[in-house]
Amino acid sequence: MRLIRVALLLVIFLGAACGRSDQPAPLTVTYVANTGFLIECGGKKILIDALFGGFEADWYHVPPGGIVDLMTAARPPFDNVDIIAVTHAHTDHFNARMVTDHLVNNRRGILVCPAQAAQALETDPRYHDVKDRIRIMAARRDSTAELTVAGVEIKALGTPHEHSADSHRDVEHLEYLFTVGGRVIYHTGDGEMNDVRRYQAYGFGEKPIDLAFVCWWDAGDRLTFRQQLIHDIIRPERVILMHMLPNRPPIGNPERQQTVAKEVILPQLCLQSWGP
Ligand SMILES: [Zn+2]
To answer: What is the CATH number of the domain that holds 94?
Structure first.
């Protein structure tokens, strides 16, 4: 009898343990500026589009100097970052010198980026010191590239940059999907979210998206289209809006609307963070 009871307890314990292991790891997100965030999940850290600054702008948040210092020195909370991801080489997403500073001070960091961003690092005298830790994600337009770094599955989506028909035609631009700690996290960068078939071809809808970082800077018809695309095709649990105009109310109160996801978050302060 006692043996049966012990066996039963063991089954319950193992069942609970298995149940726990199936649960996704806690996810913490810290806002830096514009489309820049620190993502922490399953013991991994991803810093995306955050290493820029040193100027002022009216159109988006720029990291304050003290925060840039923490990032470039790889000091907490920007220490032990596993992946430094860059969507494209525009100055409101990427600064080659600051990325090199961070890589020099964080020996475990791997840079994933489009070729244009990698090329921008080559003129730095410290390039030889970091070049082995650069991974160019060669996803051509409307295609994908995949790589696993530090146990994080990275899928780069070769989406054209917003306004790719004119001013940003030659920009190499990537969106990202990260699978880490049992969660799927999506970051649009400045992607031109104008084509439902592109996102269907990427495979959206096959796996649930835990969190989507969505560029929201556009207005009017294109914003309505984007909301529909997110709601119908991407279907994330949570949305964090990016590329917002500072000191101005967002158009259409997107943080309050529930048309795209159950929860919509509007970052406002540098180092503001959201836990599990
Ligand atoms: Zn851009």
So the answer is: 3.60.15.10
Domain that holds residue 237: 23-274
Q: Which amino acid is at 72?
A: T
pLDDT digits 0-9 by tens, 74-102: 999 999 999 999 999 999 999 999 999 99
Task: Say how many Å lie between the CA of residue 92 and the centre of ligand 1.
Answer: 7
Report the 10 Å Cβ neighbour count for 44: 19
Three-class SS of 27-83: EEEEEEECCEEEEEECCEEEEECCCCCCCCCCCCCCCCHHHHHHHHCCCCCCCCCCE
> Which residues neighbour 201 within 8 Å (Cβ) at sequence distance 6 or greater?
142
CA of residue 90 to ligand 1 center, whole Å:
5
Cα–Cα distance for residue pair 93/162, rounded to 1 Å: 14
User: Ligand 1 mean position to 167 CA, how many Å?
Assistant: 10
Please count the structural domains in the chain: 1
Token pair in block for residue 34: 């514009």
